[in-house]
TrEMBL record:
It is a multi-pass membrane protein. PANTHER family: TRANSMEMBRANE PROTEIN 165, TRANSMEMBRANE PROTEIN HTP-1 RELATED. It comes from Chromohalobacter israelensis (strain ATCC BAA-138 / DSM 3043 / CIP 106854 / NCIMB 13768 / 1H11). GO terms for cellular component: membrane. It is found in: Membrane. The chain crosses the membrane at residues 32-57, 77-94, 106-122, 142-164, 176-199. This is GDT1 family protein. GO terms for molecular function: metal ion transmembrane transporter activity. Belongs to the GDT1 family. It comes from the Bacteria. Pfam families: GDT1. Keywords: Membrane, Transmembrane, Transmembrane helix.
Length: 201
């Protein structure tokens, strides 16, 4: 009974993590990064492997951190932290992306390593990393959360790599960035004002 209950908890953690990060990744800067990379290099498999390895490492550490933070922070403090994190990400998205690193002349270690480094760095402080920390705290299951968030990340970016590059020049990237920025700022304000009770006093 204990083993079955533990398996059900791991399955819940896995499925919730896939859904949460998969949805959060739509329109995110890392998805746009995948679009820019495949448009530049036309090597979807190398980019996908770079995304996979970078996400496994980054989200593995994040899920572990979440389980540790759950024991140190009270729910109110955790909610406030997440709210400010969303605001910061929303403001950061207003800054145009610097695509200098995507210049083919700067690729000295191959497309895989370029994708790995760029995605690993882009995920630092990203909303999907914050979500992974929170999921780790919620389920206390590093393995299931890491696998789930990684699958969600791959599921959101794989279609971009094989389909998006055909239409990448027709997509209004600045508009997508602006909408994503407003969405993150709205979520941050909603989290701080509603969930913490600041709006209602």
């Amino acid at each position: 009974m204990t083993r079955r209950r533990r398996e059900e908890t791991s399955l819940d953690a896995l499925l919730t993590s896939v859904a949460a990060v998969g949805l959060a990744e739509i329109g995110d800067k890392t998805q746009l990064l995948a679009l820019l990379l495949v448009a530049r290099f036309l090597a979807p498999w190398s980019i996908l492997w770079g995304i996979l390895v970078a996400t496994l490492i980054n989200h593995g550490v994040s899920a572990w951190l979440g389980t540790a933070l759950a024991d140190m922070l009270d729910p109110q403090t955790l909610t406030i932290t997440v709210g400010f994190a969303f605001l910061a990400i929303g403001i950061w998205l207003l800054k145009p992306d610097d695509d200098e690193a995507l210049d083919a002349d700067n690729v000295r270690y191959g497309v895989f390593m370029t994708a790995f480094v760029l995605f690993f760095v882009a995920e630092i402080g990203d909303k999907t990393q914050v979500a992974t920390v929170l999921l780790g705290a919620r389920f206390d299951d590093v393995l299931a959360v890491t696998l789930g968030t990684t699958l969600g990340m791959v599921a959101a970016n794989a279609p971009v790599l094989w389909v998006g590059h055909r239409f990448c020049r027709d997509l209004p990237l600045k508009t997508i960035h602006g909408v994503a920025s407003l969405l993150f700022i709205a979520i941050g304000l909603w989290t701080l004002c509603i969930e913490t009770g600041w709006l209602t006093g």
